[in-house]
Fold each of these.
Amino acid sequence: MLAATRTIPDVLVFVASAAVILGGAVGVVVARNPVHSAINLIATLLGVALAFIEQSANFLAAVQVIVYAGAIVILFLFVIMFLGVDRKEQVSIEPLAGQRPMAVVAVGVVTGGLIALMAAGGWYSGAHAVVAPTDPSNDVGVLGRSIFTTYLFAFEATSLLLIIAVVGAVMLARRTPDADDAVDAPADVDGRAEDRVEDAAPGGAG
Amino acid sequence: MVAAAPWMLAFALGGFVVLVALGRRLGEPLAGWVATAAITGAFVCAIVTWIGLLSLRSRSVTITLFEWVPIGARQVKVALLVDPLSVTMCLFVTGVSALILLYSVGYMHKERDFTKFFVYMSLFVFSMLLLVLADNLLVTFVGWEGVGVCSYFLVAYYFQRESAASAGKKAFVYNRVGDVGFLLAMFFLFTHLHTLTYTAMHSRFALGAIPRAPTFIPPLSSTELTLVILCLLAAAAGKSAQIPLFNWLPDAMEGPTPVSALIHAATMVTAGVYLLSRMSFALDLSSDGRAVVATIGAVTAFVAATIATSQHDIKKVLAFSTVSQIGFMVLAVGSGAYVAAIFLMVAHAFYKGLLFLGAGSVIHGLDGEQELSRMGGLRALMAVTYATFLVGWLTIAGVPPFSAFFAKGDVLKGAWTYSKPLWAIGTVAALLTAYYMTRLFVLAFTGDPRFLKAVGDRPALRAPHESPWVMTVPLVVLAVFSALGGLLATPLDRFLSPVFYTVPPAPLSSSVSDALAVVDGVVAVAGLGIAWVLWRGRVERPELTPAFLRRVWYWDDAYDAVIGRPSTRLARATAEVVDPVAIDGAVVGTASSLRRGARSIRRLQNGFVRSYALAMAVGVGLLVAYLLARTF
Amino acid sequence: MTIPASWYLVVSALLFGIGALGVLVRRNALVIFMCIELMLNAANLALVTYSRVLGDVGGQATVFFVLVVAAAEVTVGLGIVVYIFRARRSTIVDDVAEMEG
């Protein structure tokens, strides 16, 4: 049960999570090697998980670590390795004129504006416990109940979405039979003709 | 009997239609005979109508053909006014036209477009009859335009020649300028009088037996009336080739000679005089208008006569002579001597038609030669032409007892009564007329056969021949009428006076009248004598044919400099500057600026995902900025 | 009083900003993808924060689903990157610039 008062440990946890989050984020953007970016992403995700725990969303923190850091980022790393692009990238060249300054300005305006607007709007407003009240001691139960009752349709739909995503990924990644790409088709499994042993029995060749 | 009037139109129109439909198949010479027969039929109808009119007491009949233009509560009808004036016009128009068409059968022999000539001539006669017989200004205008169009077609008959095509255009354009006057006069009259019919207008103008009676209020103020008269004068100047719109007539000599004879001597050019005579009731009430009309007539007569003394082409002399003679007619109209004007018109149709046809005979016989310097010595070779031309020459010079002596005499008597200075100008013009016509006769018919000098290039000139009977018979007929036309003076006066005068004008005292006649005779003989002496045996006299006169007092050049060239410059400026830059520029410019705009916008789509992402980010930034602005 | 929502929300906003900057500035498709994940995480953080202060489990349920969708998205997205890489031998997004006007 979380204390109603702000205690030093709470602040320390917040500061730590914020530092990790923001540090990792900067690292993702700045790192030259994509693998480094992926590692920094893991850091950010762990930081977010820490923030979740601090806010009594324990189940979500766990899911965050398992799914995000444990599956998605690993998938990223797989693809990086598979494609062989784990080389350093030239971060300094920017072919599009004015892209960087304009990006900084736009993002600065958006972020600053967001914070200002939130501050002006009192950070949060709205009715309490519209869907279901949280229970810091039983967040899994409450979450589960709401997913399987209130958001059942969404749940089923996202399941379908996952299936579609898998099918799509398989289709995209599949190699077409006459593809003339760098990764060659495996050599004739049965070896050269001379090596083939005339053998009627199955389980063949040698 | 009077009902034969519409049949005149029917015959002329029928001839036109038949020739349009079957002309090509009829070919030469049958097409010519069909046209001549049609117009002869019209002439017979004219005679029948005349006899019918004589037996009527009212001396004026309106025959309505059909209703035409509804204007408000009123109708403009297509109706014919049969009265002495229109019948007189119809008689000589159809008669002279028939003779000239007969002549043309011979003159246009072997022309490529033989039928086309007769088609347009028939249409012309129809339009002229419509003009003359109409009972209101609008139908007159239809005929007016019709004769203008036919004149264009016929002047540009040899349109393959650039000078001919351009002359046709010139004739039509000058006519059109005058037509503006006609239209303005019609608009004005209709606005104030609510009618365009001659009889209705006449009654509005001449209420009461004596105009200018104290209780008589004219329907238009005197300034308005003068304006109308001036507009009508402008129309007449355009059609009848008076100053300042006369330059087209000499150029119109590019057309075949029968065209010059019919249209530009006997008929179309008299239409202006006819119009003014028809509106005599308006002229009587506008002293300023009459002054302008009479002055224009006198001045034109004089100027054209001076120009005619210095021309080298036989047809051009006759053309300027026509301008001058019509000037006399206009002078008569302005002076109030309407009957004299019509008498001169009729006589002029005879003798000028004769002179033109005679000239055509000479040209035909000399294989197309028109230069006076290359004629001469034709007395023995073309006897009939010589004899008839002699009659015409004596007539136009004003030698008694031929017709023009009496006709021109009446005109000058009217001028004397109206204004002595104008009479003087007219008399000088008469002197010049005798002079230049004698010069023409001497150069063309007497002396050495100068045409033989050009035989080397044109072998046909070795034996000029007399024209065939189809051409000489009309010459003889016209010669007879020219000679004896003086007999028409009194009957015509009795016939026509009621149209113009409710009270006949007081005649001159016999002593004055005789004195003037003597002056006329002396002037004619003097002019004749002077020219005979000066030009007998001579071909060129540069001191007597100065460039100023030969070049039409530089009138054409003046128009060219003041109107022609600036207009061309304006047109060129518009075509080369305004059109491509302003108009095309606006149109094409709109398109090209759109294209440029689209091209520059297109550069946004550069294919780079990151710039599209940036665009989205900028959009979100703008949204946030807007919200910030709203909140703070 | 616990940590005020504003602190977490500021962190979330900053995380979002850094992620957006990364999407706009980096040229490697995979790194761009990772920056998108950063932005999604920022959203998740904000949602959980709101769930806490409003005492509503709806925020947490939403995070749950965001997680699922992010997973699916990464799957398909990386499949596409692999596919494109096979043809062009490059993961630089600037090289795939044919949809231009």
Note: Chain A touches chain C through 98 residues (CB under 8 Å).
Amino acid sequence: MDLNGKKVIALGERDGVQGGSIVACVKSAGAEVVMEFTACFV
Amino acid sequence: MAIQAVGRLPVISGVRYFLAHTPGLVPYGHKPMLDIGRNAATLNDIVSQFRSYADAVAYPPNRAFLGSIYPDQLRDISRPWFHANGDAERRQPHGDMMPEDEFYGLLKVADDFDIIRLAEDFAKEAADSLRSNPLIRPEDLEKLDETYSREAVEEQLSESSSIPLVLKSGRLVGCVTGIEGSSELSADVLLENLACKASAAMALRTLLSDRDIEPSQVQYVLNTGEEAVGDSFQRGGGNMAKAVGELCGLVGATGSDVKAFCCAPTHALVIAGSLVSSGLYDRVAVIGGCSLAKLGMNYTGHLKSDQPVLEDVLGAFAVMVEFDDGRSPVIRLDSVGGHNIGAGSSLRAISRTLMSEPLSKLGLRFADIDKFAIELQNPELTEPAGGGDVTERNYRVIAGLAVQNHEIERSAISNFSAKHGMPGFSSTQGHIASAVPFLGHAVDRIGAGEMQRAMFVAKGSLFLGRMTQMSDGYSFILERNPVC
């Protein structure tokens, strides 16, 4: 998937992959993060 | 590696729990309350799926929480577990499950400000029920002499500052009165705080009674609940610890609260161990009251799956941390792992700081930990709402770390998870569900020589409070006493 120049909404989960980690990954691939959120289901 | 002495060894001499079956309070859970406010008919849908007290007592995950079955035994019971009820006593090895009429009476016992106003007929019934409870004292029952006529209750409810207290059957039995114009002292917040106080007190009273500890001999109390006690000028001012201590007769103790979302109990256990290790105190109680806001949190999924609203119990725990008695399991202060501020939020960073590094420091392998106690939420509560099996997901991460550590093959992940993990069995009561539900089992098994050590790993969702994007984590190892 080519994320360069794409806008991304990062939805993470505390007991899985957190939003901050997704942001770090997609930014390194050239994407712009327009929203970041980490959910806790418990 | 032998235990490295850090001052005096702190041990956990006892653990007890408390559950209250309170379907009548489910409409005051945050999610149900929001939805009922938007559509009043939602209340009927929720009420139609309430289960009986007998079913809640016998529900296998609740029996694991109260110690009458070992968590691994849940694997032998086919799901859905709510079909496997059977018979069970309310008093189980690790604690009691109280029915809601008794619990409403207990709320009055815990109330020092005429917040709970019970109708005369119900107050008498509640007093009669509580009188047979061995943990209730005559002076507790005096609180129930203060009653209101049904007309007075109904008149009070005509004011917006009050909310009704209703049993599962729909019977109005009293009201909760708040302070007009104060969101911190509103009726629903005061109810949440009183429920937290009352449930923590019952867990602590159970522990003191079972361990035959004179209340005046406890020197410090650390409360770990997620409640916010305070008024408009000091929201969350706290010290629920002393309120609970007072209700339990801890006249020789002072105390304070530890706040770290679901992670607070593990922080507090290590702090308690440190207070004992330093020599400041010989006996410290760590307590956590219930999270009323989480009642019915996943009810929409339960209704869609045509199953009972299973988040109908309030949970609490109490732990006694003491100076080494030569037999109880030891909190290894040299094993503590913390998710430090600079560690980063990746799963790898969290796992490294909480598990890999502490184990490596002690020269232990993942397989040297008999059981990992992590987020222990019952999957039957979270799966219908789309949250999945949080416990199982965390165990697979731990097994993955063992693979990375070259301890096991990738193909052995499932076996490792099963052997060193367990099915989730705790109600979704926030901090109550985070690692500490296994503490009672661990103390039993380590004390009996059936287990060498267990690791307690808790996480907290700090980001929910909007002050930081960070989460939190804390861990420690509980190990067999070296004298044994």
Note: The mean pLDDT of chain B is 96.
